[in-house]
Design goal:
Helices cover 25% and strands 38% of the residues. It has a six-stranded mixed sheet, covered by helices on one side. The protein has a two-stranded antiparallel sheet with strand order 5-6. The relative contact order is 0.23. By secondary structure, the chain is an alpha/beta fold. The longest helix has 17 residues, at 52-68. Strand 5 (99-103) and strand 6 form a beta hairpin. The protein is built from three helices and eight strands, in the order αββαββββββα. Mean pLDDT is 81; it is low at 1-17. The protein is elongated and about 70 Å long. The chain has one domain (21-168): Double Stranded RNA Binding Domain. Residues 23-173 form the DUF4136 domain. Residues 1-18 form the signal peptide. This is DUF4136 domain-containing protein.
């Protein structure tokens, strides 16, 4: 019984470490995404203050994700794509209350009163924002973001690929039927 509880707790702890990005997107309902076969980059210059190596890794990941979906790079393409990266610090507070609880192997939960237990930690959320513009109309047609807790070091390629795959999973948006 104890082994089963321990293994379940361990699996839940590991699942909590493997966070997936929170994804949001918005699309122009009047845009015709079925005509898009090729793309170009809206800008290929590294924004001031951004790590140029990180910029190249994100750009390469987006290129690979679009190629896997059948889009080819052309100049000009039917749509132009651009991205930005951002980070935001926040404080996360978890209040466990004044009662500590534990599970008794012979059955049931038990607890006792005590001092309030509060966990406070600083968290950095990284956000990848992808914008897509129709090159014919020069208007935005799609906007997507992926936000995830990140560390201060530069993310490795697997983290970048995961964020790019998550945000582009909604491009092109599903066709809405009435």
């Amino acid at each position: 019984m104890f082994r089963r509880i321990f293994v379940t707790g361990l699996l839940l702890a590991l699942a909590g470490c493997a966070t997936t990005p929170r994804v949001n997107y918005d699309a122009d309902p009047a845009a015709n995404f079925t005509g898009y076969r090729s793309y170009s980059w809206a800008s290929i210059t590294v924004p001031q203050g951004m790590n140029p190596l990180l910029f190249q890794r994100v750009k390469a990941s987006i290129d690979a994700a679009l190629a896997a979906r059948g889009y080819s790079q052309a100049n000009p393409g039917e749509f132009a794509i651009g991205f930005t990266l951002g980070a935001r610090d926040r404080v996360e507070v978890t209040d466990f209350g004044p009662y500590a609880t534990y599970y008794r192997p012979w059955g049931g939960w038990a607890g006792w009163g005590g001092y309030r237990n509060v966990d406070v930690r600083n968290v950095t959320d990284g956000t990848l924002t992808v914008d897509i513009y129709d090159t014919g109309t020069k208007q935005p047609v799609w906007h997507g973001t992926a936000t995830q807790e990140v560390s201060r070091k530069s993310p490795d390629q697997a983290v970048i690929d995961k964020a790019v795959t998550a945000v582009l999973a909604n491009f092109p948006p599903p066709i809405k039927t009435r």
